[in-house]
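Internal tracking record. Fields below are filled automatically when a chain is submitted to the structure queue. Please do not edit lines marked as system-generated. If the sequence contains nonstandard residues, flag them in the REMARKS field before resubmitting.
Queue: standard
Priority: normal
Entity type: single polypeptide chain
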Amino acid sequence: MENSRYVKFEGVRITGKNFSGLEKRAMRNGKMAIVNSEGSRNFLMVFDNKSLAADLKNAGWNVKYFNDSNEPYIPVTVSYKLYAPEINVIKDGTKTPYAEADLEKLDMYDIRYADILINPSHWTSDDGGSGIKAYLKYANIIIEDDPFADKDYGLSETPVMNEEDIPF
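SYSTEM-GENERATED OUTPUT FOLLOWS
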């Protein structure tokens, strides 16, 4: 764990993606319940360092474990309310900055791994509870390369038509 304000995680997996912020529902105790409110963008950051997971959990982070594999993960919120996170997508050898309007594309991509900087937010509740919520500060998200990107299909380039080339 770093001693600065932010915490760096490298080579993590991303699952449970909801970069688009869609409302999601699931069965809870035999009833349909909202598990993600409309507009709430988030994902699960999975990492394999169980010692770090224990340290973070002891410090108050919301570390959870998958039932089937006992892998640790942290829910991460992507918010533009106070400070916009910087998100870069690296795909087919090109690094592209993503704005808030671009984020829904990430729900469709196969993410290989990510390097992430988290802004930990300390919270307390009226009932005496407290903890640390993870907000995304910075991310380089590496997307699986197109396996056919270099394949030559023998196709010709589609010419770009200028306005003066249009016959009507």
